[in-house]
Amino acid sequence: MNIKYIGLSEINGPLVVLDKCKNVSYDEIADIELDNGTHRLARVVEVYEDKAVLQVFEGTKGLSLKNTTTSFEGRPMELPLSGEMLGRIFNGAGKPIDGLGEIVAEESRDINGSPLNPVSRVYPRNYINTGISSIDALMTLIRGQKLPIFSGSGLSHNKLAVQIVRQAKIADEAGQDFAVVFGAMGVTNDVADYFRRSFEETGVLQRVAMFLNLSNDPIIERILTPKCALTCAEYLAFEKNMHILVILTDMTSYAEALREFSSSKGEIPGRKGYPGYLYSDLAAIYERAGIVKGSSGSVTQIPILTMPNDDITHPVPDLTGYITEGQIVLDRNLDATGIYPGVAILPSLSRLMKDGIGEGYTREDHQMCANQLFAAYAKVQDARSLASVIGEEELTDTDKAYLKFGNLFEEHFINQGFETNRSIEETLDLGWALLSTLPKSELDRVDDEHLEKFYKPEEATF
């Protein structure tokens, strides 16, 4: 029997408190009917004896303490799922907003996901080709990995996200089963229009499911957006056997919504006011990437987050770095000089890269080429620091060679433009051409066999 409760005992921000509730569960969905007949969705976020605290998704504006009717549905929030979700645009709570009608659901699933036995996980191997040299060569995205992008306010992370969606493809014969789930949280209308327009103009929208939460939408919806996006991704990956790349932007907006919600509940704040459970909450999102036994599909994540004041020790990037398998860091100085994408090579890494590249995946020389490019670019920074103290003319010939290499590396390798889509072979060949501008004796991360094969200074004309 469905019991309806009339009236509320308290309204506080996005939260309402209900007294004398029976058999109410945490995370249960409730339907709130206003005195004008309209309905709003709510979720139980706290239960204490016979009291229940509910989070109202559409906000509490217009709610009455006396004439509001609440009924509980006895289930958590679920997302209707279907293969038809590709090519569609949804709001942060999973409701279609593209004017094409409701999804004909094949099934519905709890947006919080199902517990996954760690033993059933398969170790990620093989890579996803993004067409971006700095990523593909030096911090390769492995299928089933979670690899965040650390950016700053005003940097070109949105542009980079669009380029990755447009160019990303699986490296083997399974490429036709590749799709993208795109979740945007707290973005402005013009940014949302940019994403939508870019995907439509480049023709990739048919293989993209978009979940858009705008900056003027309720913060509660913002908390649901990554969960809805990942529920869609898991269904397509593990039921439809597709390879799904999930891009979530901006995770800092998600964390700030969580902080605001935690504050309204009166919880004790942690670092910079974020709730103490921020780590476990982020982990519950990031750990939904991976490959599972019995399915030929996979879920790969690229969360994008903006670092306040470009501070990489801020709680959101700091905790994200603990949970994920590496990071791609964008550099403001490179961006200011017109280099796109402005990837900071030295603080960036992919911890699973070594197991998804090389012979049988990319090319046999990939690891050595990447190691040597990293080592050489690290020496470029040393040479630049020395030149700033004693002057460039006082440097040794080797240091001058490194300065030249550094400028060429940034101009031709890191900087490739928004329209350029390089294959892994083109990227590695370009890397070797740049390394060939250095003295052969400096290439100490490459064995003699590959040095003989790929070191060709006579062809290194830039």
From TrEMBL:
GO MF term list: ATP binding; proton-transporting ATP synthase activity, rotational mechanism
GO biological process: proton motive force-driven plasma membrane ATP synthesis
Keywords of this entry: ATP synthesis, Hydrogen ion transport, Ion transport, Transport
Domain ATPase F1/V1/A1 complex alpha/beta subunit N-terminal positions: 9-65
Signal peptide: none
Domain ATPase F1/V1/A1 complex alpha/beta subunit nucleotide-binding stretches: 131-350
Keyword ATP-binding belongs to the record: no
SUPFAM superfamilies for this protein: P-loop containing nucleoside triphosphate hydrolases
InterPro entries associated with the record: ATP-synt_VA_C, ATPase_F1/V1/A1_a/bsu_N, ATPase_F1/V1/A1_a/bsu_nucl-bd, P-loop_NTPase, V-ATPase_su_B/beta
Residues in ATP synthase A/B type C-terminal domain copies: 355-455
CDD domains, A to Z: ATP-synt_V_A-type_beta_C, ATP-synt_V_A-type_beta_N, V_A-ATPase_B
Annotated PANTHER family: V-TYPE PROTON ATPASE SUBUNIT B
Record's function text: Produces ATP from ADP in the presence of a proton gradient across the membrane. The V-type beta chain is a regulatory subunit.
Family: Belongs to the ATPase alpha/beta chains family.
Record's protein name: V-type ATP synthase beta chain
Species name: Ruminococcus albus 8
Lineage, broadest ranks: Bacteria, Bacillati, Bacillota, Clostridia, Eubacteriales
